[in-house]
């Protein structure tokens, strides 16, 4: 197990460095700069600013300086929010995005598994068709389409839930963003779980257990569930990425104050340091979570370690 973890870490570190290099290069070649949005400044002033932030250095030296600071937890300055560093802006918005993402993820995984299992146990019934119709709809409707529909129904017409804001993460402010984020993952997990469970239930050892008179619940939890979890574990990484990337749109639409709002603000205002910092934070979390998923995968199916 330790050797497998070391191998995965040896892959994760170069992957993060490659993402950082490509992102930094894209920021470097992007037209304009953070100071082009302001009124024209004297060349001497511009040269002093570029020297202060190492913008006059060659590309590779700039990249090395940035990575060195990133390892120490310094994401650099924000050129638009001049009273704050990127680290401070991320620290302010990170809790909101973390709460929203974790809740959405924790809702989507068990809900999708339960719905998929029910559909498998009731396969080819009206309930199965209903659940799979919901699943298909949830897969094809993105969060940025579902969110305004939910707001129109539950906020504008019914007045049951707030249309946006955060208010310290109160439950009423969480419901619509979480539903918007989690629906796609619930639908995807339900479809995969149904297929995996049906395949498992058709195995000879399941039929043998049924012939012995064991109850359906006993067979489900003691024989069928664990093999059916293997494809679900493999889906956790993509589901997490979907929640993280979807939260950018949700942050903007519901004005939650999360990292998504800072990311878009940085992109629109050419605050490349802010965009770069958030990109690396999200990439680091994604790589770390995929590493955790790989470890879970080896626990359920030890053959993966070979």
TrEMBL record:
Intracellular or extracellular location(s): Cell membrane
A GO BP entry: transmembrane transport
Start and end residues of each ABC transmembrane type-1 domain: 94-293
Pfam families noted in UniProt: BPD_transp_1, BPD_transp_1_N
Residue stretches spanning the membrane: 9-30, 98-121, 133-159, 171-190, 229-254, 274-300
InterPro entries recorded: BPD_transp_1_N, MetI-like, MetI-like_sf
GO cellular component labels: plasma membrane
Membrane topology, as annotated: Multi-pass membrane protein
UniProt keyword annotation of Transmembrane helix present: yes
Keywords tagged on the record: Cell membrane, Membrane, Transmembrane, Transmembrane helix, Transport
Entry's family note: Belongs to the binding-protein-dependent transport system permease family.
PANTHER family in the record: INNER MEMBRANE ABC TRANSPORTER, OLIGOPEPTIDE TRANSPORT SYSTEM PERMEASE PROTEIN OPPB
Stated name of the protein: Oligopeptide ABC transporter permease OppB
Biological source species: Vibrio splendidus
């Amino acid at each position: 197990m330790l050797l497998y973890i070391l191998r995965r870490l040896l892959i994760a570190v170069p992957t993060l460095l490659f993402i950082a290099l490509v992102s930094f290069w894209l920021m470097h070649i992007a037209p304009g700069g953070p100071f082009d949005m302001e009124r024209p400044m004297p060349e001497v002033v511009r040269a002093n600013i570029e020297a202060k932030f190492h913008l006059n250095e060659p590309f590779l030296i700039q990249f090395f300086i940035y990575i060195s600071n990133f390892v120490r937890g310094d994401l650099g300055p924000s050129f638009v929010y001049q009273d704050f560093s990127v680290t401070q802006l991320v620290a302010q918005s990170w809790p909101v995005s973390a709460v929203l993402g974790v809740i959405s993820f924790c809702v989507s995984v068990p809900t999708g598994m339960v719905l998929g299992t029910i559909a498998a146990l009731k396969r080819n019934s009206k309930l199965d068709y209903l659940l799979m119709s919901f699943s298909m709809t949830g897969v094809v409707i993105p969060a940025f389409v579902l969110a305004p529909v939910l707001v129109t129904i539950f906020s504008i017409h019914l007045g049951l839930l707030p249309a946006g804001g955060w208010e310290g993460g109160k439950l009423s402010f969480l419901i619509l963003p979480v539903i918007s984020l989690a629906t796609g993952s619930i639908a995807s997990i339900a479809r995969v779980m149904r297929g995996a469970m049906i395949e498992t239930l058709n195995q000879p050892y399941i039929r043998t257990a049924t012939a012995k008179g064991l109850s359906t619940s006993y067979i489900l939890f003691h024989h069928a569930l664990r093999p059916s979890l293997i494809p679900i574990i493999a889906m956790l990484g993509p589901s997490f990425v979907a929640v993280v990337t979807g939260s950018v749109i949700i942050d903007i639409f519901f004005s939650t104050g999360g990292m998504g709002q800072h990311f878009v603000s940085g992109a629109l205002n050419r605050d490349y340091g802010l965009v770069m910092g958030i990109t690396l934070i999200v990439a680091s979390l994604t790589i770390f979570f995929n590493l955790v998923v790989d470890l879970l995968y080896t626990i359920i199916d030890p053959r993966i370690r070979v």
